[in-house]
Amino acid sequence: MVTGNTARVDTLTLNKILAKRVEPIFTQSVLMAMLRSKGRIMYNQAEDAIRWRPRFKRHQLQPGSLNTKNRDFANINFNRKAELPIRSYDMGSSYSRFERLLSRKKGVLLYNIVDEVTRAMGDDFVESFRLELYKDGNAGDQDTIHGLESWFSQSGLSGNGITGLPNDTYAGLLTTLGWYGGSWPTGTWPLQGTSTTPQYWAWSPLIVDYHSRQFNKDGTSVYNFANKWQQAINFGKTYLKVVQDTTPDICILEPELQRAAEDSLEGIQTFEVTQTSDLVKLGFKTLQYNGLELATEFGVPASVGYILSMKKLALRCALPQLIGAEEDHDIRTSEDLRAISFWGNVMCDSPAFHAKLVAISASGT
């Protein structure tokens, strides 16, 4: 504890201050709030890397016989190894010996100076970190965490005219359909067929073209988000359930897309405002469409939306809290140094549990 104007503030106290100052991130970031409300922020995950073994294959039924028949006891590897690096972020600040002398003259406790410095860093961390959750951790040499864009790259429209062809690498595994075997016997995944070989799509996200010419059930031939967003969201929600048996929790839209969706209903109907949900309890105002919660926030990449199953996402932190504080004294400059840092990464159980809404085709008629 502080015993005088020039007493050093111990690291435990710094971390307590910091934890309090960073708390607003859970009421300012939709994605952080959802992760927390679903219990998907994990602390004390100190490892040299994040590793897990997602399942790609299933046992196959074998028709029986009343007569003697040999059974198949094939030794099959059902899992593959996924691995993500630990990524870190740092932020530092300092205050000088002169500031300490002034604080003594003015009767201001050193604790108050430290509190102010730590508060400012905590606020700046909140503003910056929430933007990282959408970034591509594979891009160049950025060394950012593996946010949502880390597994949603696509190489163009598939044969069904609705979905994109995944072509990313996440956690060392390729998202390309069929890369790890299997097949989709009829039509183009995920339409017009079934398959008993889930390894075909086990690591492939659902990428929906909201300009698709297949979305023609509303009587308008102008293909843009304002006219086709309902069909695009319906498609994503339906096929996440059909193919992965997962019910998404939320659709996060880039602000302009949400505005276009709301404007499209003007004079016809209005969105239903969410009455109760985990986000509403944290102070967010969200909308409801067809049983799916819609939200928006600053930082979502332009012209995209994400349909997410939050129980299949996690933010794994190496520290006992979201960010930790360190302090030191530089005798050469007579400065007290304060640093805060995050260590960890975003872990997605499999990209296949999530969908992205994006313009692959050109808009127009």
Secondary structure layout:
Layout: H1 11-22, H2 25-28, H3 30-37, E1 41-42, E2 49-52, E3 82-85, E4 87-96, H4 97-105, H5 110-132, E5 154-157, E6 164-166, E7 169-170, E8 173-174, E9 206-209, H6 225-244, E10 250-253, H7 255-264, E11 272-273, H8 278-281, E12 287-289, E13 292-296, E14 305-308, E15 313-317, E16 324-330, E17 335-348, E18 355-358
Parallel strand pairs: 1-15, 9-18, 10-13
Antiparallel strand pairs: 2-3, 4-17, 5-6, 7-8, 10-14, 11-12, 12-13, 14-18, 15-17, 16-17
What is the gist of this entry?
The protein has 365 residues and is an alpha+beta fold. Helix content is 25%, strand content 23%. The chain has helices spanning 11-22, 25-28, 30-37, 97-105, 110-132, 225-244, 255-264, 278-281, and strands at residues 41-42, 49-52, 82-85, 87-96, 154-157, 164-166, 169-170, 173-174, 206-209, 250-253, 272-273, 287-289, 292-296, 305-308, 313-317, 324-330, 335-348, 355-358.
Main attributes?
18 strands; 365 residues; globular; 23% strand; five-stranded mixed β-sheet; alpha+beta
